[in-house]
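Task: sequence design from structure.
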């Protein structure tokens, strides 16, 4: 495998389209050799990426029928990391007040649980809301 492998997608910001991203991500990670706990690691990444995309679809683009998510998946074989960038042009998500502490399952406020999952499953999570261009950047170090 050449280093790095990059795949770019431009998908509709709709729930059914997230299956395309999930399939692509699963196939990309399936090409990695010597991944410790591959089933758990791949599933953790899939859940985190899906959670970020669900936030985009449900919060950032609910009133934009033509909303899109620009996705860049970059697998760095040498340093064994995956970088997922998700960009949308919808409304920014207000994550400033959300807690990253382990939430009480009985009183999980939206979007706190999703943010908790992102930070629990990935090694680095950043969100940069800007007018007309919101970007999530998720990084997972693959050991």
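Answer:
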């Amino acid at each position: 495998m050449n280093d790095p492998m990059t795949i770019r997608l431009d998908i509709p910001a709709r729930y059914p389209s997230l299956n395309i991203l999930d399939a692509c991500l699963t196939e990309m990670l399936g090409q990695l050799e010597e991944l410790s706990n591959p089933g758990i690691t791949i599933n953790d990444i899939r859940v985190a990426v899906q959670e970020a995309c669900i936030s985009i679809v449900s919060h950032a683009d609910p009133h934009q029928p033509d909303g899109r998510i620009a996705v860049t998946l970059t697998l760095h074989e040498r340093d064994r990391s995956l970088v997922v960038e998700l960009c949308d042009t919808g409304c920014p998500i207000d994550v400033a007040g959300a807690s990253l502490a382990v939430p009480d399952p009985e009183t999980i406020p939206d979007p706190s649980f999703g943010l908790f999952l992102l930070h629990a499953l990935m090694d680095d999570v950043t969100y940069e809301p800007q007018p007309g261009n919101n970007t999530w950047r998720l990084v997972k170090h693959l050991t």
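DSSP finds three helices and five strands in the chain.
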